[in-house]
Amino acid sequence: MTAKVSSGYGHSGVNRRGDGRQVAEASDHGGRHVLVAADKFKGSLTAVEVAQRVTAGLRRALPGVEVETLPVADGGDGTVAAALAAGFERREAAVAGPLGHEVTAAFALRGDTAVVEMAEASGLQRLPRGVFAPLTASTYGSGELLRAALDAGARTIVFGVGGSATTDGGAGMLTALGARFLDADGEPVAPGGGGLAALARADLTGLDARLKDVDLILASDVDNPLTGPTGAPAVYGPQKGASPDDVEDLDAALTHFAKVLETAFGPDAATHAAAPGAGAAGGIGYGALLLGARFRPGIEVMLDVLGFAPALARADLVITGEGSLDAQTLHGKAPAGVAAAARAAGKDVVAVCGRLALTPQDLAGAGIRRAYPLTEVEPDVALCIAQAGPILEQVAERIGRELAA
Q: Which of 190, 369, 374, 383 has the most CB atoms lying inside 10 A of its own CB?
């Protein structure tokens, strides 16, 4: 729900907006309007919690400031949570986890638009602690989650990919949606990327017919191809427990997968394998492209879906951020996308973060006037992670004091 609230700090009335955003407003708003559009601090605070803590800190220093919160995500884990915070309805489905066990996965729905996060079904967080399955983990549950969105009436599906436990090229997802991948004996190949080495024939004729009438958007912050030196196995396989031998086997299996699909799908199968985003989330991007998905940078898609433009128009200052502002931030992460949109609209932008690894020149190039890392308050990184909430409030209070000056 959306409300103008004091977030438990100070006194104010309540005004329902109905668009999913929250606005903290005192009776004397002082003419300042701050938009908090930050991603999560991974491992310590969700994007919603970041927004709450920043709001609290700002209002300590500047009780009259009006604060609008719009938690954001770039397509990876936290994407559904951001949509829910923006007023989407939570839906759940029982699907297969990456090892085949049943899990309850959520997606977000508003009207006929669904936001589906593959990590909800096939993410690393769905594996038992300390367990990796680089050769056998499957995206089957992600396909079931897409099917649940179709069943709910979705005509536009934003498919956020990232944080996967899998490297199967989306074969599991496609199987859940009606495709068949068979070995030389006509039997289904084993789940996971490793099983694709035995693939002899692919049959896509049974794919869910509803997919032809859906606008499927592949939202990702990476643009890797499926295979090769910058492909899914080589770049992301080690993060999922793949040894050097596993990486070599997975790259060969996915190369073979794409080659076999040329017979069933045509020459576009090879084109899609080399396309930006095909290697996202263990190659599930490739499977999505085969389904006709449009690849777009995740943060751009999410800003559109969340209604960032009208919120930006109301703001005098934008506060963005994430756990670590570093070189990766500049390549499609949420703060860079927020800052680019804000700069285009002529809005001032500052960032909060756990740690800062960018120069002032890097920040200026991204459209961020200044960054405020938690480590300026508490140099001990472990304490910053453990006490991220209270320290972030202190950082936001400092921003508020500077606004009041």
A: 374
* 113-117 and 102-110 strand pairing: antiparallel
All structural domains of the chain with their residue ranges: 79-299, 307-371
List phi, psi (to 5°) of 91.
Answer: -125, 150
Residues in the chain: 405
pTM for this one? 0.88
Amino acid letter for position 290: L
pLDDT-derived band at 31, boundaries 50, 70, 90: low
Q: Which CATH architecture fits 79-299?
A: Alpha-Beta Complex (3.90)
- Please write the tens of the pLDDT for every residue from 379-388: 999 999 999 9
Of 348, 351, 339, 350, which Cα lies nearest the Cα of 303?
339
Q: How far apart are CA 293 and CA 207, in angstroms?
A: 14
DSSP-based three-state secondary structure for 380 = coil
d(CA 232, CA 234): 6
Examine the pLDDT at 59 and tell me if it is beyond 50: yes
Contact 195, 260 (CB under 8 A): no
pLDDT at 404: 87
Helix (H) or strand (E) holding 218: strand 215-220
Report d(CA 119, CA 390) in Å as an integer.
29
Q: Which two tokens stand for residue 107?
A: 């997606």
Q: What does the alpha-carbon distance between residue 143 and residue 177 come to, in Å, rounded to a whole number?
A: 6
The stretch 125-131 carries a mean pLDDT of 94
Q: Where are the beta strands (DSSP E) in 29-144?
A: 33-36, 66-69, 89-96, 102-110, 113-117
Q: Which residue has the higher pLDDT, 16 or 401?
A: 401
Q: For residue 229, give every residue at least 6 positions away whose Cβ sits within 8 Å of its Cβ, in sequence order, or none.
A: none
User: What Cα–Cα distance (Å) separates residue 269 from each residue in 63, 166, 216, 262, 293?
Assistant: 57, 20, 17, 5, 13
